[in-house]
TrEMBL record:
Residues 173-182 have a biased composition (Basic and acidic residues). Residues 81-176 form the AD domain. Residues 173-199 are annotated as: Disordered. SMART domains: AD. It comes from Trichogramma kaykai. Residues 183-199 have a biased composition (Low complexity). This is LSM12 anticodon-binding domain-containing protein.
Amino acid sequence: MAGVSDYFSIGSTVSCKTCYDKEIEGEVLAFDQQTKMLILKCPSSMNQPNLNDVHIVNLSLVSDVQVKNEASSPPTNEQPMSLNLQRLNTRVRNQIDGKKRMVKALQAGASPDGQKLYIAISKTINEITWQGPNIVVWDKVTIIPPYKIENVQGNSNDKAFTHIKKVVEKHMRDTAAEETQTKEQPSQSQQTQKGSSTQ
């Protein structure tokens, strides 16, 4: 690890290369010397000027660190904002759960439609699993390929069956709406281009 300082002053601009060969450059929000953790505020990856990305960098795992611009004077008596650790831990857990759902869906070898439906259901229902290409919910309801409303199997008098059928129906509506919106966007941009060329 080259160029790591014993201390990074808040407000300085620092650039570092992670172990994944990713360049991160931003303003130092915080630095913990004991754990070698650096928190950087970077421009939004979604190109929104009112938002920022915040990266927590473990300096033990970076290949290069450079101070691009040293802060001239530390912020005067500015109390750092306290972090809501419970909220952060919940976000981390949700992200991990989401990734696990995606991995399970991919491992099942199901079609992309099946994978999307599995992920959609698993966001609200934990008791969901794969049996080959079939999705099984609460050990009562099975959804077989091609994962449409008519492919939901189970006891039609059971509340679980009715509920899952509604979930599948909503998922299909949402998916159709997304596809329609995606198709409309290029045509709108084409109309804008045509309109601007005539002026």
